[in-house]
Amino acid sequence: MVYHELRTYRVTSPNMMEHLHRRMRERMSGLLRDNGMRLIGVWEVAVGKQMPAYMYMLEWDDLAHRERGWAAFYADPRVEEMNAATYRDAGGNLFHDYDVTLLEPADYVRDTVQEAARDA
After folding, report:
1. Can you tell me the distance from the alpha carbon of 59 to that of 57, in angstroms, rounded to the nearest whole number?
2. Structure confidence at residue 44 (pLDDT)
3. How far apart are the C-alpha atoms of 45 and 58, rounded to whole Å?
4. What percent of the chain has a predicted confidence (pLDDT) above 90?
5. Other Cβ atoms within 10 Å of 17 Cβ, number
6. What is the CATH number of the domain that holds 93?
């Protein structure tokens, strides 16, 4: 079954948003891909109580795929380098907290979601 993981980071200030975009654009998207992960999209909250917030979504074939992906990602020495460079360039913490939400499609759309995942 296909799962989607939505990660939401509440940014410490609007200035830090560009640091998160640069990190994803220049380093993290490649690291995710290299470690078998599928990045579906990246967003900023435009309106809502979570502003400023940065979100991205990953797609997983199943929960075992998620476990393997994150294990490979955190074992990759480039991740530690990316983190150090990001915090150094930003001059501090980019976000003050975050949420990870794992989404499972409802039974009445499950086939549609899985077909879309295969076509991607």
Report:
1. 7
2. 94
3. 17
4. 68
5. 18
6. 3.30.70.100
Distance of CA 86 to the CA centre of its chain: 16
What rounded mean pLDDT belongs to the chain? Answer: 90
Domain that holds residue 67: 3-119
Structure-token pair, residue 91: 């001059």
Q: What 3-state DSSP class applies to 92?
A: coil
Residue 35 carries which DSSP code? T
Give the pLDDT of residue 114.
Answer: 62
The total domain count for the chain is: 1
d(Cα 93, Cα 20) in Å, to the nearest integer? 11
pLDDT digits (tens, 9 = 90+) for 15-64: 889 999 999 999 999 999 999 999 999 999 989 887 899 999 999 999 99
Count of Cβ atoms closer than 10 Å to residue 28 Cβ: 22
* Measured distance CA(65)–CA(62) in Å, rounded: 5
Question: Could you give the angle at the alpha carbon of 3 between the alpha carbons of 83 and 114, nearest 5°?
Answer: 130
pTM score, whole prediction: 0.87
